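$ ./design --mode recover --in tokens.txt
reading tokens...
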């Protein structure tokens, strides 16, 4: 799995506010990432000279130096949360960059979990309790994880239909999307052919790019994720070996057991 252990951000601000007053903010940008969350109501946003009507339940991500502007239309109101942070480092991405091509994020299946954490964050920011800053950091980190889990539902920055020779940035974008997809969907029946089709490249081309950047093929990387996750689950004696196999993407427990022994040199039962 992708190691996000070093990806805990420094929180610059958590700013919930309710706006009933029509008006337009200055067109501005930051030298750090910002997340804007529409909790209730609506507002219009100008982002890099494109215009969006943002409604309840939508989330915006502004990478550093992304110009944006908010307008509260007449007769409307909005309840939003703005979060500024820095020193957030992702494998294969770098510091203070989230790998989304668009600032408007589709949370997909992460929607409910994400907004449950938003509710906790709003409650925590409204009080001066012991450990407030530490808890805010934990909650914002959790929101970032849910955003990354939603990455397969969104286009990756610099991702495009590739033809001919692609640039290093394009190659990295393809591999990055594949990495985050595999980490999010390892428990499912993952097909290299379907993943490559979703990324608009051939299976052979994806395997070649992936091995160049990561050092192993997508299939080997997926097996690595599954085996390490299985090793974490097996000590839980409330799960059968068959159930563990199913949770890491294998419908055949016998095949899973053979693969586990080949990978670790011991059987799944010896891991318990």
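writing sequence...
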């Amino acid at each position: 799995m992708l190691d996000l252990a070093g990806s805990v951000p420094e929180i610059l601000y958590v700013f919930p506010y309710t706006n009933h007053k029509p008006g337009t903010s200055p067109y501005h940008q930051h030298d750090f990432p910002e997340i804007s969350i529409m909790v209730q109501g609506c507002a219009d946003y100008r982002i890099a000279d494109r215009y969006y009507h943002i409604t309840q339940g939508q989330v915006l991500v502004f990478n550093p130096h992304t110009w944006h502007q908010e307008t509260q239309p007449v007769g409307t109101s909005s309840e939003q949360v703005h979060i500024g942070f820095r020193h957030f480092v992702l494998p294969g991405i770098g510091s203070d960059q989230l790998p989304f091509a668009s600032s408007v994020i589709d949370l997909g299946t992460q929607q409910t979990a994400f907004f449950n954490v938003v509710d906790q964050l709003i409650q925590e920011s409204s009080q001066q309790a012991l450990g407030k800053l530490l808890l805010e950091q934990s909650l914002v980190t959790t929101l970032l994880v849910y955003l990354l889990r939603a990455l397969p539902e969104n286009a990756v920055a610099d991702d495009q239909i590739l033809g001919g020779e692609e640039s290093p940035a394009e190659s990295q974008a393809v591999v990055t999307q594949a990495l985050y997809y595999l980490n999010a969907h390892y428990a499912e029946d993952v097909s290299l052919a379907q993943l490559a089709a979703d990324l608009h490249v051939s299976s052979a081309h994806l395997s070649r790019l992936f091995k160049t950047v990561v050092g192993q093929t997508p299939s080997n990387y997926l097996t690595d994720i599954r085996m390490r996750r299985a090793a974490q689950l097996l000590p839980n004696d409330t799960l059968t070996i068959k159930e563990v196999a199913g949770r890491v993407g294998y419908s055949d427990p016998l095949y899973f057991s053979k693969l586990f022994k080949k990978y670790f040199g011991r059987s799944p039962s010896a891991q318990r």
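exit 0
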